[in-house]
Amino acid sequence: MTTAHETETASDISSGGWIDRFMPLPFRPYCRLARLDRPIGTWLLMLPCWWGVALAGGTRSDQYWPDIWLLVLFAAGSLVMRGAGCTWNDIVDREYDARVARTANRPLASGLISVRTATAFLIFQLLLGLAVLLQFNNYTVALGAAALVLVFTYPFMKRVTYWPQAFLGLTFNWGALVGWTAVDGQLRWPALTLYAAGFAWTLGYDTIYAHQDKEDDALIGIKSSALKLGDRTKTYLWLFYASSLALLAVTGLAFEYSWVYTAALVIVAIGFIWQIIYVDLDDARDCLANFRANRWVGLVVFIGLVLA
Predict the structure, then answer these.
(1) How many secondary structure helices (H) and strands (E) does the chain include?
(2) How high is the pLDDT of residue 13?
(3) 163 belongs to a structural domain
(4) DSSP 8-state assignment for residue 10
């Protein structure tokens, strides 16, 4: 998915990293297609899953700590499905990517991998994802499979709406629901408020991310919340992040969580305020740095849920 990109230069294909040092030459394009060298997207996909596991576990008298095996499964599933999402995104966007300096060197856009080969790689990743999904209860299997509708729809949204970030929020935070059902066996309203909190969080961080490409997007006809909001972006970031924080607070209140969870939310609030005040939306590198910082936001929420 597009929010998985990380870049330090005009191109988001870095050289000299672990892929170049350790992977055999034939495997390198596939590692880059799956964004294995840029883990931030995996973190942002995995953390809502972990939130759901921790939150549901807190409702059970026989489970003090989150089930480690479930956390491992969701980590593996997030890695595989993030790679599948990126592969599908690059298949769909290959012509657009070829026209943007930051993405022109990607394996599909540059012609290093054919569409047929990329499709076979996509199927392989989906089968791995299915193998992970089948480890859960039937309710979670069905709910997880339903997320594929969002995964395969998302890349087209930037063509029809200025809010593809909203569709990404629906997709990336689905894990809050399946994380809960993996423990509880059914959906309950606290999982929905957690999902909504993640959705608002994604609107914030992915709008910041979208400001990296706003000039190229405008030229080639791609829509984004960055283009829609323009100079009003920071005003809306206050709204997005405040909504996320409020929904996280409501989720905690449902279980009368202790001061530890409150302290975690205070830390999250400070992080949100820092991003809004200090991010330079006209500096692509600074936008990326603030986007990446949301890994720590998600980890703080997870730790707060566990310790509370």
Answers:
(1) 15, 0
(2) 62
(3) yes
(4) S
The average confidence (pLDDT) of the chain is: 90
The pTM for the full model equals 0.91
Residue 5: inside a domain, yes or no? no
Q: Is 258 left (phi over 0), alpha (psi -120 to 50) or beta?
A: beta
Burial zone of 39 (CB within 10 Å; 0-12 exposed, 13-18 middle, 19+ buried): middle
Structure tokens given for 131: 């193998």
Measure the CA–CA gap between 158 and 137, rounded to whole angstroms. 34
Which residue range is the domain that position 210 belongs to?
Answer: 19-307
Structural domains counted in the chain: 1
**Cβ density class 204-215: b for 16+ within 10 Å, e for less:** bbbbbbbbbbbe
CA distances from 94 to 5, 90, 103, 107 (A): 15, 5, 9, 9
**pLDDT, tens digit, for every residue of 82-117?**
999 999 999 998 887 777 777 778 888 888 899 999
